[in-house]
Design a protein that fits this description.
Blueprint (H helix, E strand, L loop, with lengths): L18 H28 L5 H4 L16 H22 L4 H22 L17 H18 L2 H21 L16 H10 L14 H19 L4 H22 L12 H25 L6 H7 L2 H10 L3 H12 L6 H22 L7
């Protein structure tokens, strides 16, 4: 990871910077770094117990289905893709050649993969018994980013679209048509499916032991990043701002419709990153970006988004920090004693305080224009 104070690395670096991308990245990260816990604690003050219809949106479904909490990871990948056309164009404008771009792409891919092993693969245990090789969002980003970068550098837009469609259809066909030993093809059970069989075959004892899959699901990771790339290319186009909002909204509605239709034959299963899930999550991602872009970059209402921009400016750094540091241990010496006297209000106070500590650190970094980049 690198830090910098040059204009090109800041979150408002130049007049081509789309602030809505930074804000949406920060909005997504907010839930990972503490927003989820705050929401639970506040809802518990109002409801006892929390209604199932609300609680469902704050958990991952066991297998088939999709909740609001399921949006976090695909939206993260989508935003990575949306930023790529801008970052690649700026590097080209600086005179970087294709080999130089590839050096950056390869280094970033390796760093993301290693950071994923640190965050969730237990690399820092230095114990092969606990090591998981491929088990984390950052590693999914690494795979999606690598292959999306290759397509962005060498393929025209129409071919990129066709390649993305081929990935989605190809994943569907392979998943449903290729049998695993002792089973008929097309089985999509938590402990019995082709994607999980491939992971267990390749990783052996280094497999993460969950029902999430990674190697074959990489086709879906690439497709999710490419949906973001299309959004970024649209935002860089010469169309008017409101026309861009219109097309982002239309793409969102189209992906939702296709995802809903496809799930009749291929269920929406985030654990497998099924093609129907890619489109379903992609649809919501387009709609969120359309909303943020319209409000922030077109209408110009920006102040409300500042807290998100601060988080989005150092997204991967704070992601790693929250996997390595328990910020409740930082904030509790300040508010823990008071929280014990507040009864039901103590838990929300502690959750908000932990989130505040994280945000204040990020705000200080933002003020000092310290942006840790991979």
């Amino acid at each position: 990871m690198t830090s910098g104070t040059a204009p090109s690395t800041g979150p408002t670096a130049d007049d081509q910077r789309v602030l809505s991308i930074d804000a949406l990245r920060g909005f997504d990260m907010l839930w990972i770094i503490g927003g989820h816990g705050v929401a639970f604690a506040l809802l518990a003050l109002v409801f006892d117990p929390i209604p199932e219809s609300i609680a469902y949106q704050l958990y991952h479904p066991d297998w088939i289905g999709f909740s609001a909490w399921d949006m976090i990871m695909p939206l993260f990948l989508f935003i990575v893709g949306a930023a790529m056309p801008f970052s690649f164009a700026k590097r080209r404008a600086r005179g970087q050649t294709t080999p130089q771009l590839y050096r950056k792409i390869i280094v970033r891919t390796i760093v993301l993969f290693v950071l994923g092993m640190v965050a969730q693969g237990n690399l820092l245990d230095w114990d092969p018994a606990t090591l998981h090789i491929f088990s984390n969002t950052l590693q999914a980003i690494a795979v999606g980013y690598l292959f999306a970068a290759i397509m962005l550098l060498h393929l025209p837009v129409i071919t990129q679209v066709l390649a993305t469609a081929a990935l989605l259809v190809g994943f569907w066909v392979v998943l449903m048509r290729v049998p695993i030993p002792g089973c008929e093809p097309g089985i999509l059970e938590p402990q019995q499916n082709l994607a999980l069989y491939i992971d267990r075959t390749i990783f052996g004892r280094f497999e993460d032991g969950t029902t999430y899959t990674w190697v074959l699901s990489g086709m879906g990771f690439v497709a999710t990043v490419m949906l973001g790339v299309f959004a970024g290319q649209l935002l860089r186009s010469k169309w008017s701002p409101w026309m861009k909002v219109f097309w982002l909204t239309l793409l969102g509605a189209g992906c939702l419709g296709l995802g809903w239709l496809w799930q009749q034959w291929l269920p929406i299963i985030k654990h497998l990153w099924t093609s129907s899930m890619v489109l379903w999550a992609g649809g919501f991602s387009y709609l969120l970006l359309a909303l943020f872009y319209a409000v922030i970059d077109v209408i110009g209402w920006r102040r409300w988004a500042f807290p998100f921009i601060v988080i989005g400016a150092n997204a991967i750094a704070v992601y790693m920090a929250t996997h390595l540091v328990n910020f409740r241990h930082v904030s509790d010496p300040v508010v823990g004693g008071l929280a014990r006297h507040l009864g039901a209000y103590g838990e929300p106070l502690q959750e908000v305080a932990a989130l505040a500590v994280i945000w204040l650190i990020l705000w200080y970094m933002y003020r000092k224009r310290t942006f840790l980049r991979v």
